[in-house]
Prior knowledge:
Blueprint: E1 12-16, E2 32-37, E3 42-49, E4 56-64, E5 70-78, E6 83-91, E7 100-103, E8 112-119, E9 125-131
Antiparallel strand pairs: 1-9, 2-3, 3-4, 4-5, 5-6, 7-8, 8-9
Amino acid sequence: MRLDCRLVLPLIVLLSCDTRPAPLDNGANDSDVSAQPTTQLIQLSYTGSISEDGPVLLIALLPKPASSNYHYALEVRTERGMLLQSMGVRNGVPVGTDDFVVEDINADGHKDIRLLGGTDTAGAPWYKSWLN
């Protein structure tokens, strides 16, 4: 089986000022979003294809120990568990189940990653986005 990584790599980091919350994609498709509690933070993951005919991938947000703020590792793996990409993410707020979203943000046919980054002084949320 040949895996085409061009759909995932490189992930481009963009800061988004979109303050509209987006629900998790829980429609009738091949995706599954799950959360597993850890000692203090939540481990979040998405399993599914990021494009119509693309391979099944596991995208996970894993909490990391930190003395300040909230640190995570964002990992993209194949269906068999091979690591394709990993990056550190530092957040001002802990991430909950509604704060980690995998959906097509820019209508290009590929699912992207959106993560709550924090809130502004008025309490409005702001997001970090990775476009695939």
